[in-house]
Amino acid sequence: MRRTINMCEEHTVSLVDVLEEDEELEEEASAVLAGSDSDHCSYPQGYVKRQALYACSTCTPKGAEAAGVCLACSYKCHEGHDLFELYTKRNFRCDCGNRKFTELQCKLHPDKDEVNSLNKYSHNFFGVYCTCSRPYPDPDDQVEDEMIQCVVCEDWLHGRHLGCVVPDCVELQEMICESCMNKNPFLWTYATHLAVQHAAVQVKVENGLEDSKGNIPNNEKEDDDVEEPSCKRSRVEEVPNCKLRQLQALGQKTVQSGAVFWPPAWRSKLCSCNTCQERLSEANLSFLLDESDTVLTYENQGKNNEQRQQGHDVLMSALDNLNRVQQLEIIHGYNDMKAELKDFLQRFAADGKVVTPDDIRQFFEQQSRKRRREDSRHFYST
Q1: Bridge-partner residues for 260, per DSSP?
Q2: Where do the structural domains in the chain lie, given as residue ranges?
Q3: Where is this region: Disordered (predicted)?
């Protein structure tokens, strides 16, 4: 996942840009927040598979123990506090009101353990991100860039600090940062065969053995034909269905540097034999075998929840209590006003003019006068 960072210097945008940006922000907020409960503390659910989280710098300032609170607690228990938005984290249990909060008791679920020992924390909980440990947004950063979240450590990194080229359609791909790749070397084997091809990690053969035309020298090709020692061959034969062993046996390698981007459904291609499951478990990476763990899946669930809630909108419920004629009148009136407002705003957008409060006030005054005239005609015609 990624976040866009705008340049700090002043710049001019059109009304169309503002409307489109507002719509994108609304969709993003809906995707993130609709997947979490805004009314009830998530603590009773235990270590939630994925949820929106916040850190409170008012209650846990730098130097204190790191802590995270759920969406509902950010509203009910930390209103008016300075909060860091952490986007989403996996397998986290709400800390609100536990031992780390010396002067605050959770209003929604006061009976909590002193500490959630399985929670994982990072410098994100103190409002800094990336290898550069800078805040987001960063008022001192003059570079227009985007931040992308590593699916393993869940830190957010600037695109320019990933050590590779950020591919197109990055919002549909998952990224593992270089640090996490190096902590789990077997991931480099998967990267050689599964990662997005135009990511920097994929374009070089290890040790720079490509010639200027991208061909592997003959002596290296010959090495591939050399018979493997019997001990190595026997290890491969021990686990004949291990996909990772099969990929390792191919002997293809790439330069092991930079972040790695993975295409959709790449997790389904990872080996799930007993040996690999144990390896992933020991590295705390078992979630990589779970395709429903992805942020994209969580966001889609949030959007679906939002759509279901909109199906029970208060205005729609009110319409249900009106007769058919009244419903049609309200719907036509709403559509007419929406169309006129769109035309009104488009004139400003086409001329590159700024919409002022007076312009908006004038528009609705015109709508009000128009409505009174229509009501008057309706009154005298009856």
Answers
A1: 176
A2: 34-126, 145-298, 314-369
A3: 210-231
